[in-house]
TrEMBL record:
Domain (Solute-binding protein family 3/N-terminal) ranges: 28-238
InterPro entries assigned: Solute-binding_3/MltF_N (IPR001638)
A Pfam match: SBP_bac_3
Signal peptide residue numbers: 1-19
Keywords for the protein's UniProt record, in alphabetical order: Signal
Protein name per its UniProtKB record: ABC transporter substrate-binding protein
Top-rank taxon, per record: Bacteria
Length: 246
């Protein structure tokens, strides 16, 4: 009898645990079009739409804050309910987060002015130039770790202007393949790729306190999005984002 009662209590406890709703998540990101950007009062973009769909399929309540990158990243490190996207997964960052993804991919490209000639055939060749970075992001950390002296900016979109003003020689940019972002910003024919120095994937990176079961559920939702074509549809939704209106 006692065994039956104990078994019933354990079964009830398990059912209650399974029925508990997922915690509300605080999601942070930066302005990095077309991955994340503000459209009126709403945050949109490829990464944002991917994350919103993951949350919907996982049954997770959430809010999204658009912040400077260092604040967005620090929030996910310090808040037990927080995740940050679109985050490059590096060996240094690996132990600090639980990872959902990848939700996108990009190339790290040294960009330069089209009216200048650059003899850059390897990353080491770029040491002869002033390289502009985005303070605190993965490219900035990557170059610093390799001994580069960089010129960091608090906002990545300052770097194209610094290039045009000759304040830096090269900009360490992260650009989605076939992206028209620079065209939309008015740099067509003014800035050109000089050297691709890395190809990366980006993720939703969650605080280590986010439950493993929830992380697995979110990764499962993303897998389903890949299988049923939703992820591809989201990416292609922004194919014409950078095309100026006619």
């Amino acid at each position: 009898m006692k065994t039956t009662v104990l078994a019933a209590l354990l079964a009830g406890a398990c059912a209650l645990a399974q029925a508990e709703p997922a915690p509300r998540l605080y999601l942070t990101t930066e302005t990095s079009a077309p991955y994340s950007m503000r459209d009126g009062d709403r945050v949109t973009g490829i990464g944002t739409d991917m994350v919103r769909e993951i949350m919907a399929r996982s049954g997770v309540a959430y809010s999204i804050d658009l912040l400077p990158w260092k604040r967005a990243y620090t929030a996910a490190l310090e808040r037990k309910d927080a995740c940050v996207y679109s985050t490059t997964r590096t060996p240094e960052r690996e132990p600090h987060f639980k990872w959902i993804g990848p939700i996108g991919e990009a190339e790290w490209v040294l960009m330069g002015r089209a009216d200048r000639h650059f003899a850059v055939h390897s990353l080491d060749d770029a040491r002869a130039y002033r390289v502009g970075t985005y303070n605190g992001d993965a490219r900035d950390q990557f170059l610093r770790a390799r001994g580069f002296t960089v010129d960091p900016a608090p906002n990545d979109m300052i770097n194209p202007r610094k290039l045009m003003m000759d304040r830096i020689d090269l900009w360490a940019a992260s650009i989605r393949r076939d992206s028209l972002t620079l065209d939309r910003l008015g740099y067509t024919g003014k800035l050109v790729p000089v050297f691709v120095f890395n190809r990366i994937r980006v993720y939703l990176a969650c605080n280590r306190a986010v439950p493993d079961a929830l992380v697995a559920r979110m990764n499962g939702a993303l897998d389903a999005m890949e299988r049923d074509g939703t992820a591809r549809t989201i990416v292609h939704k922004y194919d014409d984002w950078g095309v100026p209106p006619k």
